[in-house]
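User:
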Amino acid sequence: MLTAEQLEEYQREFKIDNDPRVTKIGDFLRRSSLDELPQLINIIKGDLSVIGPRPVIEQELSRYEGSDREKFLSVKPGLTGYWQAYARNNATYESGKRQRMELYYVDHASVWLDIKILFRTV
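Assistant: Predicted structure:
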């Protein structure tokens, strides 16, 4: 279903702008972030934090160098985080900005930063 350009974009960023596989309802759920609601179950189970770096798939970990990978994995992933609240689609793996923002959160995690991220997310 994906064009060569879309496949390249997915391999680079692990997402596709204007993904042709997403239905109109799915697009609404994504834009409104309602697709994140099922993750509340993971928060209740203790697998996910409310605030923290976003969970990633194995291939995304390759975007983090040695000790940065360990640092990134040292905290529980979150439903929302610094990267989503402050940059969302403007920070890419290719530019390195997403990794820097996720690691910034790990280095500066605090209750105050979590509160700021939570309000910014809402």
